[in-house]
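Table S2 (continued). Query chain:
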Amino acid sequence: MHLLLIRHGETTRVESATGIADPPLTDTGREQARRLAEWLKDERLDHIVVSPLRRARETAAPLAEQFGLEPEVIAALAEFDAEASSYIPMAELRATRDPRLRAMTEGRWEELGSMVEPEAFRADVIRGAGRGGGGPSGPTSRGRSGHGAVINVYLGDVIGTPRLLWFEPRYASVSRVLISRDGVRSVESVNESTR
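Corresponding output:
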């Protein structure tokens, strides 16, 4: 089985929401999602799982429509800061040398409004990424539309790195994991994109 880990498209910045920040994709992000669906049109996708966050659902929508699939929402695939009242894109955090970027990479997520401990997040992601649509069953592809930290954690578990955040997935990128019939996982590719 192929497992496609898809990062959401470019997302609108939210500095301070009155509740939880759950921003939509930007116009560029919607175009990235459309191009992603076009790029993956020859896949044999039989199931799509998404994070409950809007940016992941909007990214998966063109792909789901193309394959005639109804995405399954799995809460365990939400980003670690899903409860935060702000969302600042990574490019901006990096460009401005925002101290929140260092807090993120060092696992001090409480400074970012996260209510989840890093190791609890890791356990949820590993459990959640394996859910939905059953187990390995032949030459099928299953899409998981989600977030940068989720992709980091899952791929990190496959390759055995202890770091939670070890690379930056591009917007609307695909990372592929092969899963054998007996459950052995191997990374096939990381950070494929249409750009």
